[in-house]
Amino acid sequence: MIRGAAGIALGLLVLVSCAQRQDPATDMAPGAISLADGETVFRVGGCASCHTTPGETSEDAPHLGGGQELQTRYGTFRVPNISPDNEHGIGTWTEAQFARAMLRGVSPEGQHYYPAFPYTSYARMSARDVANLWAYLQSLPPVRREVRDHDLRFPYNNRGAMAVWKALYFRPTKVVDLGPLSPEVARGQYLVEGPGHCGECHTPRGGLGGLDHDRWLAGGMLPEGQGFAPDITGGEAGLGGLTAEEIASMLIPAPQHISAAEAGYEMEAVRGNLAALPEADRRAIVAYLKAVPGAR
């Protein structure tokens, strides 16, 4: 992380800027809440894949007690409890606090979240989707399970320095300018760059963990440091040689005779989530990926 007086000054400026920025919760869109739409956002966001308590998988009512550990070069990140439990989960949160966490990466106590929580992508979500997701999470069973805090090495254990990190890397706007878009490609861009957070694995990162947007979706090392997420742009090194039908078939669970190890554990989890989406949404994802130019 950045050290010295210059880094501290920059951090203070960012904190002031964030304090002056409008709270995203004040922009929550009016209208009826849809638990079905909230579940769709939950699926495409991969919430269950990370936050389900180990050994308590349930398709009908996910138990989001957290506890999974992510081993990285920065230390160990522990996935928190996001069930509506009042003591260990988010049961006492308000909808405004949830929106601030999703769209700004700030906790109810005002602390900056680490980007192991992909708010850097969720920040592109619509207010309506955030509201529906909040309602869906509140409908799930509370889980009484305490999760310990992260165990990170110095200087990464300094949450205050995250203000500087955000100033360098936090970009809640669209990543790729593709010019005028068809409704299908626009929908795909929203799903991939926003709730789907595909770039968090498929884009290379710099030394401080920020995404290299100049090589968007061009492939990157997985957060655990073991394994590589491939290039999924429309370029020759990516998906350029595949048809839309072939790519669409890759977004549903692999045939039973293919093991999770062969198919890639992380991608199998993604496929399981995307299989719950309407086919039109999967087609939109494909249309967007085909439109993304290959990296330089």
TrEMBL record:
Coiled-coil stretches: none
Keywords assigned by UniProt, alphabetized: Heme, Iron, Metal-binding, Signal
Signal peptide start and end residues: 1-19
GO molecular-function term, one example from the UniProt record: heme binding
Superkingdom assignment: Bacteria
Matching Pfam families: Cytochrom_C
Entry annotated with the keyword Heme: yes
Cytochrome c domain span: 33-141, 183-293
The UniProt record lists the keyword Metal-binding: yes
Matching PANTHER family: ALCOHOL DEHYDROGENASE CYTOCHROME C SUBUNIT (PTHR35008:SF8), BLL4482 PROTEIN-RELATED (PTHR35008)
Protein's name in the database: C-type cytochrome
Species of origin: Sediminimonas qiaohouensis
